[in-house]
Specification:
306 residues, alpha/beta, 7-stranded parallel sheet, 6-stranded antiparallel sheet, 24% strand, binds zinc ion
């Protein structure tokens, strides 16, 4: 049987991993193979789904749409070895899904992958207006289906306003509201791709993410306090759009830290050994050195920028 594929796209922090976690919990069926492409240099997203009963593969060393060659090929080989029928690729938050689809089809005899794009209703319009706007728009316009995630944050009227906005920039796209990425697995995996319509829509220029985005990686030594974390977050450069990592919080143990825009959270987590005690922050040009600097000040020696 020919391999089919879904590319799960969406800007940094939109909720792609939540979508995958949900479909694994609800039963994804046999024959699913997942490839995860974190933009950051530590594969937190892959670590988050690693212990589930599904075969996954981390696409490391760059972004799947423009810099990963061998890894994608190796992943596809693994998928074949495992007898996979369907491949789900979580593209990096800055990836152009259509370029990803082109690369995939160049590597293997695969039907046109369907593209599902997750958007964060609370921040997508703002993101579309700032320095990362081209990518955000390209991700929406090349989608077969857009998941309007985090509708609980914006409420019914916010949801309608985002849906209308998407209807204007991408009239062919179907959008579905959801919370915490909870959508039926069939919606994500069973969607026929509509390549023809996609080609009529907006075509983004090829891009070099290293110019647009930088990553600051902070290594933490020992536990940090919530106050120190707060102080760091208050001083982050305004172009930082995403942060994540497993941190040891004083009096609370290991926690998963997530930052999307200005919203952040800490939740108890089993932190995998290989990604413990590291935080990454992704932002615009110049943000990495500034983030490292404020991390050093606010975390008072518990952090060592890397
Ligand atoms: Zn790329």
């Amino acid at each position: 049987m020919a391999l089919t594929a879904t590319i799960l796209s969406g800007f940094l922090g939109a909720g792609k991993t939540s979508v995958i976690q949900h479909l694994l919990v609800t039963g994804s069926g046999p024959g699913l193979f997942i490839m995860i492409n974190d933009f950051g240099s530590i594969n937190i997203d892959e670590a988050l789904i690693r212990d589930r009963r599904v075969t996954s593969f981390a696409l490391t060393n760059g972004c799947v749409c423009c810099s990963i060659g061998d890894d994608l090929e190796r992943g596809l080989h693994e998928a074949t070895v495992h007898g996979a029928e369907h491949v789900l690729i979580e593209a990096s938050g800055v990836a152009d899904p259509r370029a990803t689809s082109d690369r995939l089809q160049a590597l293997t005899a695969i039907n046109a992958p369907s593209i599902v794009t997750v958007v964060d209703c609370a921040s997508v319009q703002e993101r579309a207006d700032d320095y990362c706007g081209d990518i955000v728009i390209a991700q929406i316009c090349s989608a077969d289906l857009v998941l309007l995630n985090k509708v609980d944050i914006v409420g019914a009227s916010g949801n309608v306003s985002v849906a209308n906005w998407i209807g204007e920039i991408a009239p062919h796209v179907v959008s579905v509201p959801c919370v915490h990425g909870r959508v039926p697995a069939e919606l994500v995996l069973g969607l026929p791709s509509n390549q023809k319509r996609r080609h009529e829509s907006h075509r983004s220029e090829s891009h070099d993410h290293s110019v647009q985005f930088e990553e600051a990686r902070i290594r933490l030594q020992g536990a940090i306090t919530i106050d120190a974390l707060r102080s760091l977050l208050a001083q982050l450069p305004t172009t930082v759009v995403r942060g994540k990592g497993f941190v040891l919080v004083k009096g609370r143990g290991w926690m998963l830290f997530q930052l999307v825009g200005r919203r952040w959270s800490l939740s108890p987590a089993d932190a995998p050994m290989d990604v413990r005690g590291q935080l990454i922050f992704i932002g615009g040009p110049g943000s990495a050195s500034e983030t490292s600097r404020v991390a050093e000040c606010s975390l008072l020696g518990s952090a060592r920028p890397n």
